[in-house]
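Q: How would the structure tokens look for this protein?
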Amino acid sequence: MSYLLALAVAGIIFAVIYFRNRRSQQFMPFSHVSPSLLFDSAPQRPVTWLAIRAATPETVLQALGLNRSAPCSWSEGMAGEHEYFISSRINGWVIVTGVAIPNPDDDVDECFHFLMSLSRKLGHVQFFHAEKFSRHHAWMRLDDGCVTRAYAWAGETVWNQGIKTAAEIELKMKCFAYGQESFPARAIEENYEKVSLLATRWSLDPARIRSFKKSDGIAGKSPRVY
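A: Here is the predicted structure in token form.
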């Protein structure tokens, strides 16, 4: 009897431990979850964005001529639905995105004049564009109103200015000549995929910036009437 009693007690103890462990796993505190699970599985990266060095959100707002603004979260800003989203300073850079930023797909001249004007006011300005469906892509760098490097492909090369930077060479990014009629599909795909890598080397990739409170910014609108 004592032997059977010992077995019964052992079985009860085992059952209690088993169910207690199951319960603790089901209700594990959030702090015990792997850090990799705390972040979004699909990081947000806008189609078009600017990286502006040594500026403040307020000076960017003024340089863009925006007279209406409101606080805006990073995730909402990265969705790209505002006319402009201006981030707070992140490691010395201000990220700007929004539907009002001209891109070379639509009008390369408008994009050129927009960036020139902004760079004259703010100094060092970078532009990145990577459109998912068409695979159109572009990257530019300007200093004090001067284009130091620019490349844009929108079904054909529409802007190619300056000497390739070390980062472009390291990443083996392809830049095609004006008037070229055929383009290797693989090279176009690789250029599109490498825009974010180039941004990381030149400044910041927005998708690598976590949605910390310090990364919140402002949404701005221009004074023009629609």
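Confidence is low (pLDDT under 50) at residues 21-42.

Residues 48-221 form one domain.

Upvote if useful.
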